Amino acid sequence: MAAPQTIQRGIVKSVLSGDAVIIRGQPKGGPPPEKQLNLSNIVAPKMARRANPNVEASVETKDEPFAWEAREFLRKMVVGKEICFTVEYKVPGTGREYGCLYVGKDPQTGKNVTEALVNEGLVEVRRGGIKPSDDQAKLCDLEDTAKSNSKGKWAPDAQSHVRDVKWALENPRNFVDAHHNKPVQAIVEHVRDGCTLRAFLLPSFQYITVMLSGIKCPMFKREGDKEVADPFADQAKFFVESRLLQRDVEIIMEGVSNQNILGTVLHPNGNITEFLLQEGFARCVDWSMGVVTTGAEKLRSAEKASKEKRLRIWKDYTPSQASIAITEKQFTGKVIEINNADRLVIKTSENQIKEVTLSSIRPPRMADDGTPKDNTKRIRPLYDVPYMFEAREFLRKKLIGKKVNVSVDYIRPGNDGYPERTCATVTIGGINVAEALVSKGFVTVVRYRADDDQRSAHYDELLAAEARAQKNAKGLHSKKEVPIHRVADLSGDTNKARQFLPFLQRAGRSDAIVEFTASGSRVRLYLPKETCLITFLLAGISCPRVPRSLPSGTTEGEPFGEEALSFTKELCMQREVEVEVENIDKAGNFIGWLFVDGVNLSVALVKEGLSKVHFTAERSQYYHTLVSAEEEAKKEKIKIWANYEEPKDIVVVEEAERNVNYKDVVVTEVGEDMKFYAQDMETGPHLEKMMEELRTEMTDTPPLQGAYTPRKGDLCAAKFVDEEWYRARVEKVSGNQANVLYVDYGNREVIPAARLAALPSTFHTLPIQAHEYTLAFVTLPEDPEAKKDAQEAFLKDVLNQQLALNVEYKNQGADMVILLTSDKTTDIGLGLVKDGLVMVEARREKRLQKLVNDYKKAQDAAKNARLNLWQYGDFTGDDAVEFGYKR
């Protein structure tokens, strides 16, 4: 160092107290040398000192009055600024130097720091001094003036100017949460390394240690008694010191690591974290990137720029090369299947099937608790791995059948027997599916090596979502017991399946989820309410077989077997469906009907020409619908009916006469479009007996209100407005209300679910008594007024009347009938035609022509008489538009 009284220059690095500073030189290829200078002739109030836990005699002290104000006055005046100084005295032994400090490069023009402190009453002049100087008298005069003006420490209230410093932080997590990621004013007191510093928060004077979120700088390591620096550790520390040490900053507290706070430090020129990355003094780290709130993408971009320039810690950086080129970066499609919790099968708009893996996430894994494994028990990952089922269900409910956008991030090559995988970011409605999974705690984020760039384009968002899930203890991060799914697998177990059959038969329609499709007519179902897995075969159809791999070899499939499988898979795979179980086969497979969004899958396959109607369907209520669908497929010659030809060697002999077989009925309900319900008079006594027994049992053993939960398709007991119990079928459930059909009378009602009860099994045996029919040979006019008149006349003629009914023909499975009065002298439909209330529907069947002609003659007579809807003439001709009618 220069000899005493020699003018020296430097930059103030920091202020220790109101009378001591650290001065550094100009940097030349690395951190410059430093020295401490104590201001001569003055004594500043002592600053509070933290107790050193490693020194037994160390105790915590408090500020002397105005110690902080003196330090702050000096800090704001000199820190970071060029100064000049002279050393007046050096203490023998300790080497401590005392001198005079001036702001600026020249003592003649610069501001004397000592005089400024004395003038403000922040320090005390040493009367006599360490070494008398010519300036001491001036300092005494300034002090006397400050005392007379009661400035600074000479003020009457000086004792109140003492900080309440909080050195320890009791609960860092609560402290961080209380600040809600808002910037807090602070002063940086110490820089430990490039990414760790200590600061006072203002105005609370809470002392905290802050680790910069999202990055890591080269560190200092302790090896024995020596401190060894990583390459560029000194430069990184100096970079931060020269910009932040004892500067006014803002700190955003974002997380906690051990007892240290993770945060972002902002100074007037910007985010110090970004600058460290830009200059190659730091690298991004995944473990704390998730808590960054100021834009993780900015940090990644800054790191990328320094990598490309190969700055400092990146001087030997070599970019990682993708081993497989991405042929299609982005595409859209419909999700048709979900495997585990991270793989989706997607059908693109070009009908291509693609499987993608969600980038940078790891699905749940079987926990290793150290207990011996039972090798005899078959592991079912979906149900046995904690949170695997919840993750799959979350994706299934959100994505199955929905259109998604796929952005491919990278291709993971196959290794160790695992196939190549396309890893992508999948979004729906702007929501990142992987991020949603992570935020629920159903999956975790993969951690990569620092030099591995093959990761999700939204990796930082995934880390942030994981941090939130960990903070809120969700899913895999929860300390609660993991959910357990005890699922009984009835597939292949004939005895268990037979025991379960009566429950499913009585349940009517049961909710299920399709877990697997083996062929067009064979699926594997999960029944949530019953918590069991079953193999389910579609009833009423014969579906082409698909190829199968067996130990003895591969069996060939039938034509259109693969198409039928694809149709069923796309329509119902992993969707919520309803099933009606009818029977069971000898292998323990359940047989019945499956409905997807109300569509009968058996009928849908037949309609698409992918199945044929099986003779066993004849005894089902869906037989006529199946036959109609098959006839339509044959007519259009699609799929299996492509080469179908109508039989030419068979002569169809049409019936020459009507089939007349009248039966006595009572009409119990009249609906729209000439539809009505009627009971057969022959079974009337059986119905009355059954109703009497039902009401007796329901009275003797009244059901517990609310114990029964109605489900669509259930046959149950319902209490009508007359407070009597009747058999009813549940058609719809909406909250606490249910739409029911009284199956023995045909009327419908919306009633509270509390007025429903389970129907005892003994009352299931009597067939449904009210059958639906439609009046034959007539159609209603489209004019609302005329239609209303016809409906009212029909209602008046038939409701609660004993009539004779004969089925004349079928129309789309519905029985089309004529109704005669009980003495068989008056045709109800013909009477409506004669009154001009309805129109005649022409039929081509030869056996019906005599009856049709009678109806047409009656219609002509009504037209001529201008009765009711014919009052303005024949509107079925060219004058239909004139009179406002439609044909």
UniProtKB/TrEMBL annotation:
Gene Ontology molecular function: 3' overhang single-stranded DNA endodeoxyribonuclease activity; RNA binding; RNA endonuclease activity
Domain TNase-like: 6-156, 182-316, 329-479, 508-643
CDD domains in alphabetical order: SNc, Tudor_TDRD11
Reactions catalysed: Endonucleolytic cleavage to nucleoside 3'-phosphates and 3'-phosphooligonucleotide end-products
Keyword Cytoplasm tagged: yes
Domain Tudor residues, every copy: 709-766
UniProtKB keywords: Cytoplasm, Repeat
Places the protein is found: Cytoplasm
GO biological process, one term: regulatory ncRNA-mediated gene silencing
Primary location: cytoplasm
Protein EC: 3.1.31.1
Region forming the signal peptide: none
GO terms for cellular component: cytosol; nucleus; RNAi effector complex
Record function comment: Endonuclease that mediates miRNA decay of both protein-free and AGO2-loaded miRNAs.
Name of this protein: Staphylococcal nuclease domain-containing protein
Organism expressing this protein natively: Branchiostoma lanceolatum (Common lancelet)
Lineage: Eukaryota, Metazoa, Chordata, Cephalochordata, Leptocardii
